[in-house]
């Protein structure tokens, strides 16, 4: 997912409060205790969710599943496209064709996942790539790019509609390392949304999980039930 750096600021020190400092706890010790409490709380919540779920998904499960927002744009062939429940299980990914690493790796793993599925499941599994770089990613460029990753659907959505679609999915993107009007990178959410045939978001895979194809396959099997 998009990373946000946060550096804790040291609490201000009051000279008058220094009296009895031998009995006061240093700020960083308090911070460590607070962080430990948060880790224990989150860990407990994760374990509880796993125990409550009848199937321990490898990805992060949506409990309860949420309806995937409908999105409309132009596909890589220049045709009007609307993503809506169509009886297929969908791996939906936000990315861009100039992405140097995460996007091509993610699409490669998703295509390998599809190839691992039994024929009947493979026919009911699709990969949808939504570009977060509508300025450069024209439908023909998306088509050329996706040709390296098997049979995927590419979607071009112009601004400001794209921003609304991304927000509806809880995804984020922003230009970075700008060197010119068409020379820049895009920082973006790198999760893959697994959506069932009824159009419900069932779970998220972080891009670091995608190499674990056997575990992804188990998630897909369960979602297709």
If you had to describe this structure to a student in words, what would you say it looks like?
This protein is α+β, with helices and mostly antiparallel strands. It has 2 domains: 15-52; 60-224, Glutaredoxin. The protein contains 6 helices and 10 strands. An 8-stranded mixed sheet has the order 1-10-9-4-5-6-2-3. The chain has a two-stranded antiparallel sheet with strand order 7-8. Helix 4 (139-146) links the parallel strand 5 and strand 6 (153-156). The radius of gyration is 22 Å and the shape is globular. Mean pLDDT is 84; it is low at 1-23 and 27-32.
Sequence-ordered SSE layout with sheet pairings:
Elements: H1 27-52, E1 60-67, E2 71-75, E3 80-83, E4 89-95, H2 102-116, H3 119-123, E5 125-131, H4 139-146, E6 153-156, H5 161-169, E7 173-180, E8 183-188, E9 192-195, E10 200-205, H6 213-224
Parallel strand pairs: 4-5, 5-6
Antiparallel strand pairs: 1-10, 2-3, 2-6, 4-9, 7-8, 9-10
